[in-house]
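Worked Example 4.2. Read the sequence first, then its structure tokens.
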Amino acid sequence: FLVVWMVLCTECTEAVANNRESESCSCSCLNDQLMELLQGYHNDTVSILNDYLKCRDLHEEELLRRKRIGENLKYPAYSCHEVADRKPLAQSGYYWLQTCRLSTPVKVYCDLEKSLDDTRGWMRVTVLDMRDSQQQCPDGLKYYSSPKRACGRSVDGPACNSVTFTTYGLQYQKVCGRLLGYQVGHPDAFHRSPSRNSIEESYVDGVSITHGKNPRKHIWTYAIGLTEINLGHLQCNCPCNSPNPGPSPPAFVGSDYHCESGLYS
């Protein structure tokens, strides 16, 4: 705006000095046209200037967000992966996340150390360490005090108990976990699977990890077989036992499982 204004005033001054007022080049003759022209330049320039200031403010805000991402409610990250990507030196800990399905940010634990597949930015969905005397079993699972503090199904015999943990609507591609279990009674691996082929049924003696609903989709199964020794209970052995394999898992499990043999006594 200032440059345009100075150029027009210079042309007007030169016209007056050269006695070209009769040619509509004087300031007085050009007044209406000049003001109309300047008003147009002014409006356009002010609009551009305002857009620039907004753009600069947004840029500075984005730079600040990248620097402080996940550290507070004002600058939540979209995922733990974004925290790891934006802040390569960030340490594992609690960060604020907000996805498109969340109206307000939530605080979650982000594991920012490199995993076995050399990736960073894992979000902890849940942790249940019953070695901690302050930990309680979630609703839906039964507390066992012997032989170790643990959580399990609430009834003996063929049955299932489920617990749902939220991912806050976050899209994910991989699931990683660790499970520590203790044998109680007579583990049967996939003994019941020939007659129970639905993911909603008790197809395994162990733990099944699924996602979604209606229907649920299988991620991983941890099965516990009775023994590696042939004692007349072949149907309770793991499928990989040799030379006495037990039943194979249902088709929806495929090869996404691990089976360990217990101790028969």
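Now turn to a second chain, presented in exactly the same format:
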Amino acid sequence: MALQLTELLRFSTEDANDLIEGEMETTLRKVKEHTKCTDWRKVNSAVLTKLTKAQLVECLNEAVIAVGLGQESLEDAVADYGGLLENQVRLQARVINRDEELLKCKNEQLEAIQSTVKSELKSYSEVTKKGLEERAITAQQVKMAVKTAVKEDDRSRNVMMFGVPETAAEDLESKAAEVFEQLEEKPKVVECHRVGVQKEGASRPVKVTLSSSDTVGRILGKSRQLKTTDRFSHVFISKDLTIDERNARKKLVMELKQKRENEPGL
């Protein structure tokens, strides 16, 4: 709005100046015509005294017309400027009122949110307190939880080997070491033994406990390489699963097998 006011005043002033200059050029042309002077700067009182009264009246009339038209243009510009200025003041007042209404609305919304949060926090606190009272943890439950956590930590350092031939008086640790060597790993073996019920014609899985779970992670990541070896292509290594995990995997394998039978092209 301020830019519009400035531009309007500038354009109106320029229009007035152009009008005055045009009329003044007409007046000067009349003076040069009557005085026979080609350069208006040479026109002085001595030259003007040679003009007739009619010629002087004509030149003066042209000058008065030029000044009058210029004054009218300036007055129109000032009037337009005043109108726009008044409109700007009204618009600014309207904007200020709107900002005040928005601020008031935001404050009301903020107060409503704060009230809701306080109410929710109070309800949550009451529910939490009640839940803690209803779920008092006994010492036995803590002991069982710790025991379970320890078992899970121990299990993370185990690997299970399947397909390792079972023989009488076997050196399981040496057999495990040979498998690890195929993976370019020489881990520290803490414990190594077969698990499960021995059956004729079948080799039981071998549980190997290593010194760290990081080593277990590296070996599991390389275990697929055994398929490309000559001696241990039939050996499979997996992590030590819980009973629930084994049952879930068994179910998943059965479902996948059934799906492949139903959809041979899968």
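Notes for the reader: The first strand starts at residue 158 and ends at 162. Helices lie at 2-35, 45-48, 53-134, 139-155, 172-182, 213-222, 243-262.
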